[in-house]
Each structure stands twice: as C-alpha cells, then as structure tokens.
Design brief:
The complex is a heterodimer of chains A (412) and B (471).
Chain A lengths: L2 H18 L4 H4 L6 H10 L9 H6 L1 H18 L10 H29 L7 H11 L5 H10 L5 H12 L2 H10 L14 H23 L5 H22 L3 H15 L3 H8 L2 H16 L8 H26 L1 H4 L14 H13 L3 H31 L5 H5 L4 H5 L3
Helix pairs in contact in A: 1-15, 3-15, 5-12, 5-13, 5-15, 5-18, 6-7, 6-9, 6-16, 7-10, 7-18, 7-19, 8-9, 8-19, 10-11, 10-13, 11-12, 11-13, 12-13, 15-18, 16-19, 18-19
Chain B lengths: L9 H6 L9 H24 L5 H24 L5 H12 L9 H6 L1 H18 L2 H6 L1 H25 L12 H16 L3 H11 L4 H32 L8 H30 L4 H18 L4 H14 L4 H26 L2 H33 L3 H6 L9 H13 L1 H32 L24
Helix pairs in contact in B: 2-3, 3-4, 3-15, 4-15, 6-13, 6-14, 6-15, 8-9, 8-11, 8-16, 9-11, 10-11, 10-19, 11-12, 12-14, 14-15, 16-19, 18-19
Classes of the chains: A mainly alpha (412), B mainly alpha (471).
Chain lengths: 412, 471
C-alpha cells in the first residue's frame, strides 16, 4: 500500500461517513462510539497487517491535523447551543465538573501507578499522565444519543444526559491549551509563562473566529462562506501546528467565537454539520493505525490505571448527579457507569498528543485512549440503557412509538 | 436554506436585472483591516518561530492564501482589476521573494493542491465546451488555430533568434543551435492558459461571442501544443546535438498517448455521467479522488491528465444530460480552487529572476502579444467573425501560466545544456503574461459587453461533504 492508496482509502471512508451523516446512522449502522474504525485502523497499521507503515502515517500528519482542527471547530460551533436550543447552565456546569473530576482522577491514578510500578514513558510523568487524564475525561455524545434514539428513550433524564454529553467536551479541549506549549522559544524577545501560552492559543482562536465572522458579514452568502470558513480554519490550524500549540483548543475557541459573534450560526451549522462524520471516520482510522501496544514500559499498567480511575470517577459522578438532579435519582446508584463511553473527542485528543509528542508520550496517551474507547463501547451503552429503563424512560411502548427520539433530546 | 438555491447559468444570469454586489466602503474597510491583520499575525508567527513544523507551514499557507487571495481580489475589484490578478498579487506579496511568509518548502508542497485544482479546471473547461457552440464556431476555430499557431511559432522563433545577443544562455551556441532553441521558444509562445481564461469567465460570468471563442480556442489549443512540441523537439534535436538523428518514433508514442488519453477521458466521462445520473451525491469527494488519485495514476501511465479530464468534462456535457448538474458542482468549488491555484502561482513567481531578465522578457512578451493581436485580426477577417471577436478575440489568448511552465520544464529536461537558462527566461516571460493577460481579457469582455452584471448566486463555494447537488 502506498500513500496514494491510503489517501484514496481515507476518501472512501469519508464518502461512507458522509452517507452515515444522513441521520439514519445513529439508529441504523455502526457501534455507538465508532470504535470499529479505530480497530480497522489498528488492523491495517504497522502492528497487525502492516499495510501502512509508520513513515507513511507520518506523511499524513498534516491531514490528521486538519481533520482534528475541523472537528474541534465543529464542536465549538455546536457547543453550549445544542443545535437550535441552548443547553441549560446547570447541565453545563455539571458536565464540566464531571469532566474535571474524571480528568483529575485518571491523572492521579496514572501518577500513582507511575510512582508505584514505574509504568509509563521515562519522561516528566505530569505530561503523559495529564494527557491520559484529559483524553479520558469525556462522555461521548454519540453513544448517549445512540442509546436514546435506538431505545427511543424520552424524559428528563434522557435530556439531562444528552446535555451533559453534548457540553462536556470543553474542559478536556481547553486543558490541551495548557499542556501544548511551543517547543522553541529562543527567537522571542520576552519569556512567556506556560499559562500565557494557553492564553495565546485561545486568543488566536478567538481572533480567527472574529476574522471569520467579520468576513462573513451581514449577508450569508454560501458562495463565499465555505471558502471563508475553510480559509480561516486552515490558517488557524497551520498557526497552531507551526507554533506547537493545541490545534484542538485554538479551533474550538474559533468555533465558539464564531457561534457567539456571527449572526449566521444556524446557517453555518447547517452548512458544516454534514462534514463531521465524513472527517471523523478517516481520523479514527488514522488514530487506530498509530496505536502502538508497546508504547512505553508498563503500558498495561497505564491502561489498567486509566480504566480503573475512570470507572471510579464515573461512579462518583453518577452518585453526585443523583444527589443534585431528581431525574437522575431514579436511575439508581450505577448511573455513572452509563457515562463510561468515550469516543471521537477522546480519540481526537489522543491523536493530537501523538502528533504533538511523537514517541512514547504521545503513543502512551493514544494507547490508553484507544483501549478506554473500546472498553466503553461495550460497557457504557448497556449500562446507560439499563439506567434509563430503571428511570422509566425506556418502556416497551416507547420502543413501539414511531419517532419520539427528537423529543427526548430537545426541550419542549 | 439559501444554499439550496439552484445555481444560475450564464444565460439566466444575463436575463436578470443588473444589480451591484452591495459591498460598500464599510465592507471594504473591514476587508482591508483584516488583510493587514492576517499579514501581521503570520509575520509575527514566522519570525518568532522560523522553520518549525514544515508540514504545518503548508496547511497555514493554504489557509492564508485562500483568505488573503480572496480579500485582495475583493479590494482590487474596486479598481476594475480581475480577481485572478488579486490572487496572484497575494501570492507574490506573501511568497518567498517578497515578505517570505510562505517559504519555498510550502510553495513546493502546494504542488499537489495545484494538481487537484488543475484537474478541476480541466474538467470544468471540457464541460464548458458545448458541441453546438463548437460546431457553430468551427470555421473561426480552424482559422484561429492555424494562424495563431503558425504566426506565433514562426514569428516568435524569429524574434527570439533576433534577440539572441541579449540572451545569455545562447552565447555558447552556434547560430544553428540558437535557431533550434528559438524554434522551441516558438512552441512555448503558442501555449495559452486554460486556467486563466476559465478563471476570468468564472468571475465575470461572461456570455457572448468573445467568451465562447476564447473558451473553445484555449481548451483545444492544448492538443495543438503537445503535437507541436513533439514535432519541434524532433526537429531541434539534430540541430543541437551532433549525434542526434531525426526520429519519427516520438510521433508514434505521441499518437498512442493522445489516443489513450482521449479514450481514458471518454470512459471517465461516461462513468461520471452514470454516477451523476444514478447517485449524484458527494461530488466533492469524487472530484478529490479524481484530482488526487486518478491524476497520479494517469501520470504514472504517461497519459496527459489535463487532456483526459477535459475530455471527460466534454463527454459529460455533450453525451449525457448531466452537464448542467456537473458544471454547477464544479462552479461551486470555483472560488476556492482558483484562489489557491493562482495565489500559489503568485508565490511561485521568481521576482529576483524577473528583475534580472526583465528587458528581454518584456520584449518577448510584447512581441508575442503583438503577434497574437495581428494573427487574431487576420484569422477573424478570414473566418468572417462577429465584430466583437474581430476586435477582442485575441485578448484572451495572451495569458500564459502552468502549461507554458510545464513545457519549459520538458525542454529543460530534454536539453540540459541550456535548459536552465531557457526555463528561467520562460518563467520571467510567463510571469508577465500571467499578470497582464487576465487584466487584458477582462477588459476585453467588459468592452465587448459580455460581462454579467449579476453577482455570483448564493450557493456554496464548496458543497459540504454531506451536501447533495441533485436538482
């Protein structure tokens, strides 16, 4: 397989993905988190079939950067608005808290394992441990929506969980802004502190969003809009990658700014939303192909620590949700396990680490993310279905109803 | 949703009452400010972190050129200069020879993006050729092809030979050798720029005899140039190399190549027509696969991708009912494709070289323009063309771009002894034609009254991957 065939393969996947975006995907085909594409990538990668080697994968790094940046921009556009209906502030706060709690727990678990068993790459453990932590922080909205739509769940808990999943991505993405710092600063006249670089990352994202909004102007001309959005996005991605900053954080900030400033947010969402799956599937395959089982000494310990810490964090999160939201109380004490699924965002963060820190650090984060995603694929949706059934939001009648899925995830 | 509006054809556009784009001074001020801001940000980034992450530099370069090219084109539009010139200017200013915001590495990396753009331009060019229009203008096309090719080949050979004291790389050559090089220059002068012609037509949405004539002529000239080049290299080789022999085997290979390319293009066109008829979705991804994948395969098989894609577009337009749908999909990508293609061309322009060779380059470009005008007038008179074509038909034939540079590269590879000098002079001359040709063509279309006053319709410049272009 040469680079050209790989490129064509990715385009074919993109083609398939764009069909899956037509709406029937969630209830029709595929696993909840799309981890089959991750596994496909791993199988064609250097560790199994060897159809694609590492050097070829490296030549696709710029494409991977663009895919990640575009996905983050889409997430920013969607974020906190949930389509046409704003997400409630309480849900936003709860989702951010759960993400923070999970990230902190996993990071602590990894640091503990590293000190106890010497696992992980022989570098500053904070970088890779925090990397694994923030990459494992999300609950993928794809899996939550998959369960809600497939089981035709409807009710306050379904809505709450959908909102939590939709709005939990900001914390891990913004955390990458703190971890991704420039590699060479020798040409700068002044020293900039680490947090300063996080501010610069977000500032550049805001600038790109403002530029795009200014260029889109008052009248939404699709003739020009896609060109403007594409140009601004590539400019932002190129800037972040050039400086060694977080592409994800910068582009997320851009999408968020654009959504907040531009009066054409809904038109833009309609224009770019169909591209999500078309870009996501090739990105998942590229990430899968990069997964390295022998990422670092004690890789198994790293993975087990991540899984264990994540389960504990989610259990605590479920308990806290029950304490705060009456709707969650009826789902029982194991509600948190229903939030175990990770997916696109986690893999994107893992891939971003692999691109930014090529070698043991990036490989370790990506490996942990890949295993967590596959694990969550089997555990999460089943537990979520059980919790919603227990809460009375999935009934035999609802399974027979023609289509009440949209009512489940959108407010009245 | 506005992006679901059916795109307007040129004829429809002309039928609409004229109105302006509605971009006032405030919009232009915002565009100017954003332009300066983008330059400032990239300037800071490139100077603070030189030479890091070269792949990232390429991504940033595409985005930057896309934004800056669009803004520059909007700003120069206010003084009547075509968008293409704005794209070129953006590339020149940002490129490695002026501000250095886009380095040589990124410019070279953008070649693959250019290949994609050129494939789409060729597809569009072929699809714009309607059989009935070609049939109607056959007499005109035949005279123009004959005279433009002959006059430029012979005339520019003579001019180049006459200018040899000022051309440094001809110094070591005997007069016969210099004459052989002059013949090759004559072929170079015959090349036109399909991309520039299509770019201007896409912007102005012009419709009329000048637009039709230029389109037909420029698109068909590719085949003529390829045949002429093979013939002239065959003739020049024995004059330049004492051991060289006149061999006609090249023609056999060329014939095979052209026939193979046309056959491949026809098959591709039929497949595309079938796809449009049966599915008609995700054309962006199909075009990407064609432009990036199939073009590479064709090059490997030694077929000419430009001709193959042109044939495919022609087949879709004329042998199926999918032409309008096909053109609408390609037009949708036009604003992105042309900006990147010409802005990259601008970044490629070797300004220091132009500074060194400009006197000869100006003389050669001037002589070529003059010969184009003279032969255009003569051909139009012989073909009894409409007055507008008689007066302005030549103006669209002055532009030169990638095709001419590709041909110069072929000559450079075939004759290494003087090839580098030849290519350098070609780059300098093509730079002038590339810059002034589109301005001249737009002026001609404006004066001939063929430019549409209706702004481009509200439609996506790139149909999103999930978008459907079914009508």
């Amino acid at each position: 397989v040469n680079g050209l065939l790989l490129l064509l393969g990715l385009l074919v996947l993109s083609y398939i993905g764009s069909f899956l975006a037509a709406g029937r995907s969630l209830t029709g085909f595929g696993l909840p988190s799309g981890s089959e594409y991750l596994v496909l990538g791993f199988c064609v990668g250097p560790n199994v079939l060897g159809l694609v080697d590492r050097s070829m994968l490296a030549s696709f790094d710029p494409i991977a950067d663009v895919a990640l940046g575009w996905l983050a921009m889409l997430l920013g556009l969607h974020y906190a608005f949930g389509g046409r209906h704003p997400i409630r502030t309480t849900s936003l706060i709860a989702a951010s808290f759960i993400a923070l709690l999970t990230a902190a727990s996993v990071t602590a678990g990894e640091l503990f394992a590293a000190s106890r068993f010497g696992s992980g790459p022989p570098f500053d453990p904070w970088i890779w441990a925090a990397g694994v932590g923030i990459a494992c922080a999300e609950t993928t909205p794809h899996a939550v929506r998959w369960v809600i739509e497939r089981k035709r769940a409807a009710g306050p808990l379904s809505r709450l969980l959908a909102e939590l999943a939709d709005s939990g991505g900001a914390v891990p993405i913004l955390a990458t802004a703190v971890l991704f710092l420039p590699m060479h600063e020798q040409h700068l006249p002044v020293a900039i502190p680490d947090l300063g670089w996080a501010g610069i990352t977000l500032g550049l994202g805001i600038l790109c969003g403002a530029v795009a909004a200014a260029l889109l102007g008052r009248e939404f001309r699709l003739h020009e809009s896609f060109g403007v959005l594409l140009g601004t996005s590539l400019f932002g991605i190129g800037l972040a990658a050039r400086l060694g900053l977080s592409v994800l954080a910068l582009m997320f900030a851009m999408g968020l700014t654009l959504a907040a400033v531009s009066r054409h947010r809904n038109e833009m969402l309609a224009m770019v939303a169909p591209t999500e799956r078309a870009i996501l599937l090739p990105a998942l395959v590229l990430a899968g192909a990069r997964v390295e089982p022998r990422a670092a000494p004690g890789a198994v310990v790293v993975v087990v620590a991540a899984l264990a810490a994540r389960i504990v964090a989610k259990l605590i999160s479920g308990w806290l949700l029950g304490a705060v939201f009456p709707a969650a109380r009826r789902a029982g004490p194991l509600l948190g396990l229903g939030l175990l699924s990770t997916g696109a965002l986690s893999v994107a963060i893992g891939l971003a680490f692999a691109l930014r820190f090529p070698g043991p650090v990036g490989d370790t984060v990506l490996l942990a993310v890949a295993v967590t995603t596959i694990f969550g694929e089997f555990g999460g949706p089943a537990r979520l279905g059980a919790a919603l059934t227990r809460a009375g939001e999935i009934t035999d009648a609802s399974a027979l109803a023609p289509d009440n899925a949209s009512a489940a995830v959108t407010p009245p | 949703m506005s992006h679901e509006l059916a795109p307007l054809g040129r004829d429809q556009a002309l039928a609409q009452p004229p109105h302006h784009s509605g971009k006032g001074a405030g919009t232009r001020a915002v565009q100017g400010a954003v332009l300066l801001l983008l330059f400032a940000v990239l300037y800071l980034a490139t100077h603070a972190f030189p030479g890091i992450h070269e792949g990232a530099g390429t991504i940033g370069a595409v985005g930057f050129l896309l934004l800056v090219g669009t803004l520059m084109s909007e700003l120069v539009e206010t003084i009547g200069i075509p968008h293409l010139t704005g794209y070129l200017l953006a590339g020149v200013v940002a490129g490695p020879h002026v501000l250095g915001l886009i380095d040589h590495h990124a410019v070279n990396d953008l070649t693959s993006v250019n290949t994609l753009a050129l494939s789409l331009i060729a597809l569009e060019g072929g699809a714009e050729l309607r059989l009935d229009v070609v049939r109607r203008g056959l007499r005109s096309l035949a005279w123009a092809t004959l005279l433009q090719s002959l006059a430029l080949l012979v005339g520019m050979t003579g001019v180049f030979f006459a200018l040899r004291p000022w051309i440094p790389f001809l110094g070591p050559l005997a007069p016969l050798g210099a004459f052989a090089v002059a013949i090759l220059w004559g072929v170079l002068a015959v090349t036109r720029s399909p991309s520039a012609a299509l770019g201007i037509l896409s912007q102005t949405r012009a419709s009329g005899p000048v637009a039709s004539f230029t389109l037909t002529f420029v698109m068909s000239s590719d085949v003529v140039v390829v045949v002429l080049l093979t013939a002239c290299i065959t003739i020049a080789r024995p004059l330049l190399e004492p051991t060289g022999e006149l061999s006609l085997s090249e023609f056999r290979l060329l014939g095979r190549e052209i026939l193979g390319t046309v056959a491949l293009g026809t098959t591709l066109g039929l497949l595309l027509a079938a796809y449009l008829r049966l599915w008609g979705r995700q054309l962006i991804l199909v075009f990407l696969a064609l432009g990036l994948g199939l073009a590479e395969v064709m090059r490997y098989l030694q077929y000419d991708p430009l001709l193959a894609f042109m044939t495919a577009g022609f087949v879709v337009q004329n042998l199926s009912r999918q032409g309008e749908k096909f053109i609408a999909a390609i037009h949708g990508m036009g604003s992105v494709v042309y900006v990147i293609f010409f802005a990259t061309a601008g970044a490629h322009l070797d300004i220091p070289l132009l500074r060194t060779l400009w006197p000869v380059a100006v003389m050669l470009a001037g002589a070529r323009a003059l010969l184009t005008w003279m032969s255009g007038r003569l051909a139009s008179n012989l073909a009894a063309d409409p007055p507008a074509v008689k007066k302005w038909g030549w103006a669209g034939l002055v532009s030169q771009a990638g095709l001419a540079l590709g041909l110069a590269g072929t000559v450079a590879r075939s004759f290494p002894s003087f090839g580098d000098g030849f290519r350098a002079l070609a780059i300098a001359t093509v730079a002038l034609n590339e810059f002034f040709g589109p301005i001249l063509f737009k002026l001609a279309l404006d004066r001939a009254g063929e430019t549409s006053a209706v702004p481009a319709p509200n439609r996506p410049s790139l149909v999103p991957a999930g978008g459907d272009v079914r009508e």
